[in-house]
Amino acid sequence: MKINDVSQKTGLPISTIRFYERKNLIPDTLLTRDVNNYRIFNEKVVDYLEDVKTLLSIGFTLNDLSTLNNQDCPLAYEEKVKFVENKLKEIENKQKKLEESKKILSEILVGKAHFKTKC
After folding, report:
1. Mapping DSSP to helix (H, G, I), strand (E, B) and coil, where does residue 79 land?
2. Are 56 and 20 spatial neighbours (Cβ–Cβ below 8 Å)?
3. How does DSSP classify residue 30?
4. Residue 73 half-sphere exposure toward CB, CA atoms < 13 A
5. Residue pair 85/46 in contact by the 8 Å Cβ criterion
6. 94-99, long-range: CB within 8 Å, 24+ apart, which pairs?
7. Radius of gyration (Cα) for the chain, nearest Å?
8. How far, in Å, CA of 90 to CA of 86, rounded?
9. Bridging pattern class, strands 39-41 and 31-33
10. To the nearest 5 percent, what fractions of the chain are helix, strand and coil?
């Protein structure tokens, strides 16, 4: 499958797919080159890139994904679990801060917010 096909099936721009390749986010098992040096993608790359999109949407960064998928130094399963647990803690902390912000904003709307200075 050529890069245009991958782009159409995933909805990702070709430039993004190339960027992911340059950052080694696409495993070697999913990408080869033909005699003309064109990229030839394995059919499984579509599912893989959909997973990447999902992970990015829930707060993983490209660096996180690079760490998880590093082919030169693959993380052991336990390390990956720890990595994901840490990401979950980060999200829970963000969620707590958002709830606190929501409470303050609600108090402002009903006139019950207490500030040390006049706003």
Report:
1. helix
2. no
3. G
4. 3
5. no
6. 94/59
7. 21
8. 6
9. antiparallel
10. 60, 5, 35
Q: Residues 57, 60, 65, 68: is their CA dihedral positive or negative?
A: negative
Tell me the backbone φ, ψ of residue 37, rounded to 5 degrees. 70, 20
pLDDT of residue 86: 92
Give kind and range of the element (H or E) at residue 12: none
Q: What was the pLDDT predicted at 73?
A: 63
Cα separation, 50 vs 10, whole angstroms: 7
By the 8 A CB rule, do 40 and 31 touch? yes
Tens of pLDDT, residues 47-75: 999 999 999 998 899 998 888 776 556 66
* Amino acid symbol at 102: K
| Closest residue by Cα to residue 104 from 92, 118, 93, 115 | 115
Whole-model pTM?
0.73
